[in-house]
Amino acid sequence: MNKLIVRFATLVLLSTCIVLQAQDQPLPQTDLPWAYALNSPRAERPADDGLPKRVPGSQSEFVLSEIRNLYSPPDWHSDDHPVMPAIVAQGRNPGVFACAYCHLPNGQGRPENASLTGLTAEYIIQQMADYRAGLRSSSEPQMVPPAAMLAIGLNATESEARAAAEYFARLTPRQWIRVIETETVPETSVEGWMFVAVEQGGSEPIGQRIIEMPEDLERTELRDSRSGFIAYVPIGSVDKGRQLVSTGGDGKTPPCGVCHGDDLRGLGPVPALAGRSPSYLVRQLNDFQTGKRKGRWSPLMQEAVANLSNEDFVVIGAYLASLDP
Ligand code: HEC
Ligand code: HEC
After folding, report:
1. What's the gap in Å between 272 CA and the centre of ligand 2?
2. Could you tell me if 103 and 116 are in contact, meaning their C-beta atoms sit under 8 angstroms apart?
3. Residue range 151-187, pLDDT digits in tens
4. Per-residue pLDDT tens over the stretch 281-318
5. CA 6 / ligand 2 centre spacing (Å)
């Protein structure tokens, strides 16, 4: 039975990738395309030039093919975190990529995935159980990183999930995202599931979006776990978000701190929200609303988001990301 599930998950992942390569006309997207960023056409990454790469503050050197190794990603700053269990550092080949590849060895994560720092082991174990039971999926099946996580969640065993959860729960979250309120943002394309500035592009109105970009694209592409992100958000959104989150906006929703803790850093098994990627947080709010995320504990959230609009999601994301993790 388990083998069947593994095969099925691998098949789903492969066919997603094939469909994505084959189609010329993209399928319709969600109405939050900035949160579920899809690669721009013909975004190709450079081939390995065989040259050793370096990042500031590390004595290590890796070539691009090592940096892109899904079963042994680079650990530039091994002093920043405890020794990783095998499932985090190497994963299990085939079927379970190393958690550290996407979530980084220090658990800080990237906009196209999620930070795992500041979460309890109990919460992470429950999420892995939800993935295994097929209760967590994404409103945007064309976005490959969440699809990959679904496959990994299906394939990972309970003891692998537990080892990873215990590791990530030990890590201390760090400041990782700098929120900037602005009217305009650089013109962007999406490469590697992430917004990057178009070369010699101009600027454009931000509108009702949050645009999350690397502080230093080169370091992020080298998967440097000390180089974080900027989140551009609409003017006034942080304050509006603070109002909505702390009061519930006149009965629109319960004040979030009731369950997530007054400081929004989590309460018991309820996850932390402070200082996390606004793209990730908004994907989740939307996935609760569309019913794509329907884990064991999700009904509490489905109620909380029932009356929230996409505009509410933007201000909530802006405010939560601006908090100290
Ligand atoms: C290919 C990239 C990738 C790898 C490798 C990966 N993940 Fe994920 N993970 C993701 C993405 C993407 C999301 C967010 C999905 C979304 O946006 O809906 C995620 C989300 C999660 C979440 C949910 C976090 C939350 O706050 O609810 C957990 C828990 C998690 N991953 C654990 C793991 C573990 C444990 C491993 C290793 C066994 C792992 N992941 C490996 C991409 C990855
Ligand atoms: C009644 C309790 C309750 C309230 C009120 C509540 N939450 Fe939650 N929240 C939860 C629980 C429980 C989870 C975990 C759900 C799951 O495991 O599927 C969660 C998960 C989330 C997540 C996903 C986090 C992750 O790591 O994936 C986000 C984002 C979130 N809540 C935001 C909010 C916001 C914003 C508010 C206020 C508007 C709010 N919550 C109000 C209980 C609550």
Report:
1. 9
2. yes
3. 999 999 999 999 999 999 999 999 999 999 999 999 9
4. 999 999 999 999 999 999 999 999 999 999 999 999 99
5. 29
Token pair recorded at residue 151: 């496959």
Q: Determine the Cα–Cα distance for residues 225 and 74; give it in Å rounded to an integer.
A: 9
Q: From CA 112, how far away is CA 142, in angstroms rounded?
A: 13
Q: Which atom of ligand 1 is nearest to the CA of 119?
A: 26
d(CA 118, CA 207): 31
CB 233 within 8 A of CB 246: no
With tokens 């919460």, the residue in question is 123
Residue nearest atom 11 of ligand 1, based on CA coordinates: 113
Which of 31, 41, 60 minimizes the C-alpha distance to 208? 31
Query: How far, in Å, are 26, 96, 282 from residue 264 at the CA level?
Result: 37, 31, 15
